[in-house]
Specification:
2 copies of one chain form a homodimer.
Chain A (H helix, E strand, L loop, with lengths): L20 H8 L3 E5 L2 E4 L1 H20 L3 E2 L5 E3 H7 L1 H4 L5 E4 L5 E4 L4 H11 L8 E10 L14 E11 L2 H21 L4 E5 L10 E7 L5 E6 L1 H4 L13 H9 L2 E3 L5 H7 L3 E16 L3 H4 L2 E3 L5 E3 L1 E8 H11 L1 E2 L2 E2 L10 E5 L5 H16 L4 E4 L5 H11 L3 E5 L1 H5 L2 E6 L5 E5 H9 L2
Parallel strand pairs in A: 3-7, 19-20, 19-21
Antiparallel strand pairs in A: 1-2, 4-6, 5-6, 7-8, 8-16, 9-10, 10-13, 11-12, 11-13, 13-16, 14-15, 17-18, 21-22, 22-23
């Protein structure tokens, strides 16, 4: 993509109302624009990141046999009356009356809807287990939306639901998601830590939040230092028994602020780490809470009707864009992990309009794209300083910088955004380096 | 995908309230389920088709330099007050009050929102032309929603918007979309005919609806027979001057019911064709209708401010799923054009549980998938008759049928869903045929 044509309205000034780094950087980099309080439009740069995150989430959901559906945003209030949540849900639910005076709502989540779909269609234990997910916009009418896409009112969430014949089955579905989530975040270049979360009246041990570490994170956490070091997922077979892997994780100490245990921490001694984190996912088992009132029953092997066991599994997809920036930025701007970068390479022409410089850059642009690379080519008539600043701001992993002086010797500069390392190397070596995977 | 695990709740009975073929077939094939009046959940089979359509639309929008953004579903009423449409829009607009008593609405379209984004960000004629699109759910509170996804309340639309410095530029943007739309529909296996549509107070000739032909179409149309025959788009350069190509199309007679011209039709004689059609797209130029009240101005080459010229370009994405079925089905079910089929191949195991039959089918399933083919493998313990009926109902382009008798001689049956042609051929030939592209 040529930057001269790309719609990427960067801002030099830091917007006054943006309190946290990701909000400031997303506005400054032209990734999003606020439409109204807590509601954002995604501009091309931001939308590309959102898509990369969606793709990874989809691939990892598909990998555990979770099937993609798409439920609508507007739901009937009657559905929520069946589960008893319509009146219980507070003012965060956006309630709507349609032209026929029917009570509707903008879905803040989809337990009722998916349970109805399942109950209408599945009759036999032979069709179990079943896991379904969708990635759809949700609305929660936060009283004070803030922090940009980190706590918006309209937000994109992946929510999955599992249906099993019994508790053992539900435990397997839960474990699949537990491991799948660790893989999902790892693929985005993130270190996510599962933390035991409240199970409420259901009880048991099947509720975990996943937090990623960021110095600017919203909450304090404490955990065993092993969470930061190990690559525990190598070679895990998603179709195999995951109890052992899950136990390895859950056996180690990890606690959010409200759940910290001074005695356990004292026992850890030097193995204790405290850090700040951002919640990016939550999985939980809730048994028959929805299947019972909404009639999600199947005929069991003996012909008797069985009420299904359910769990739900959420990932904050639009929130992740902000969370990744919180976890990975510096003074100059965003530092994208490669798997979610909007483009992998930024090609900077230091003297647009200079015939030799233009020709060299056009050539590299074409070669890189032919090699399947995603390149943002800064071909604008701007000063070098402005181009460098924009490139650092938008945080593409690699900057390939070409100016007339270097090109006389066929040399270009290759900069790694994350390490800051710069190398003057030949054009050929730079291209080989960037296309060598 | 193994059908024994795939969530595809087919129905034997025709749902009573479904009046048209696509609605009936989408319900029967387990593609969608109604959530409430005019609002549908997309189940895995339907969602796969929706995704294929989305992908084609995206590729063709990208090909003309239209850039993808994503605007939210919920908009502020104030935005629509600026354009004067808030009060003018009738009861089809879903009006919402949030917890702070602010007037909001579920966007039925996005002219206001995109114009505001543009106006906030673009300052100079150097940044023009600019074309932006998004694919997002819209809501129109139809008084009597019906015909399934063909006239739903919550529906998925691709809407694009162009910003130009002058009329000549706007005309070029319009022509790009005109040609792009013909290509888009052609890629879905559809014959779309552009029909002059009302321009209202704007006047001129830049408003066209695109209709695809279907015997069960909602409206009668008449056109020159050339529209049905020719492949006019071959070799068209989208970056070149498109005036000629567009004129070739618009010079031929084509009219929707309310615009038919008896004299013109009489003159055509034997070249006249009448048919039924379904609207699947609409493009129109509207000048300064939104840019003027919403302040979308740029500094022109002479430093003077210029109000931008705009156009908008819609494709009914979810509607297309129904429209394609209307255009392509028979007594037994859907007949998917290959580019939008949920899977390309249906592999039918006529005797699941028979060791030899299972082994042969598993082998073919793996070989086809390794060759990059999308295969739905019917491995269920069902009678052959039920499997055939389901396969015809869901309409995959190719059926590969394997039973114990044929396999003794290493023979399978390959059936083309569209032509109905069946061939008994060797397993090897069948696989070669299906992977030969």
């Amino acid at each position: 993509m040529r930057l001269s044509r790309f719609f990427m309205p960067t801002m030099k000034e830091t917007p006054a109302d943006a309190q946290i780094a990701s909000h400031r950087l997303m506005l400054r980099a032209g990734m999003v624009r606020q439409a109204s309080a807590g509601i954002y439009s995604w501009l091309p740069l931001g939308y590309r990141v959102l898509r990369k995150i969606i793709r990874i989430v989809e691939e990892e959901q598909d990998a555990i046999g979770c099937q993609q559906v798409l439920m609508p945003t507007i739901q009937s209030a009657d559905l929520w009356r069946q589960s008893g949540r319509y009146d219980a849900y507070g003012p965060e639910m956006l309630r709507i009356t349609d032209r026929h005076e029917r009570d509707m709502l903008y879905g803040p989540t989809n337990e009722e809807q998916i349970t109805q779909i399942f109950a209408d269609s599945v009759r036999s234990y032979r069709d179990l287990p079943k896991m379904l997910y969708h990635i759809q916009w949700k609305f929660r009418d936060e009283v004070r939306p803030r922090f940009g896409v980190m706590r918006g009112r309209e937000f994109l969430m992946k929510d999955a639901y599992s249906f099993d014949l019994d508790y053992e089955g539900a435990r397997k579905s839960y474990q699949k998601h537990f491991v799948s989530y660790l893989k999902t975040y790892e693929r985005m270049g993130l270190k996510a830590i599962p933390m035991a979360a409240d199970t409420g009246p259901i009880g048991g041990d099947m509720s975990h939040e996943f937090l990623i570490l960021a110095d600017t994170g919203e909450s304090e956490i404490a955990c065993h230092k092993d969470f930061l070091d190990n690559d525990w997922l190598d070679g895990v077979d998603l179709d195999g028994d995951l109890e052992g892997v899950v136990n390895t994780f859950t056996a180690k100490y990890a606690a959010t602020d409200e759940k910290r245990d001074p005695a356990a921490e004292a026992a850890l001694g030097g193995d204790l780490v405290t850090a700040r984190g951002i919640e990016v996912g939550h999985i939980f088992y809730f048994g028959k809470k929805y299947s019972e009132p909404m009639g999600a029953r199947v005929a069991g092997p003996d012909g008797q009707e069985v009420v299904c066991e359910m769990g739900s599994y959420g990932i904050g997809v639009s929130r992740l864009v902000g969370a990744i920036i919180e976890a990975s930025h510096d003074e100059a701007g965003i530092v994208w992990p490669e798997p979610v970068a909007p483009f992998r390479i930024g090609l900077v022409n230091l003297r647009s309009g200079d015939a030799a410089c233009d020709a060299a850059c056009e050539g590299m642009y074409e070669q890189l794209r032919n090699a399947g690379q995603e390149v943002l080519y800064d071909d604008r008539n701007e000063r070098a300083g402005g181009k460098f600043a924009d490139m650092d701001l938008i945080g593409l992993p690699w900057q390939l910088i070409a100016g007339p002086r270097g090109l006389e010797k066929d040399m270009v500069e290759l900069k790694n955004r994350k390490t800051g390392e710069r190398q003057e190397i030949s054009r050929e070596s730079a291209l080989a380096r960037l296309t060598d995977d």
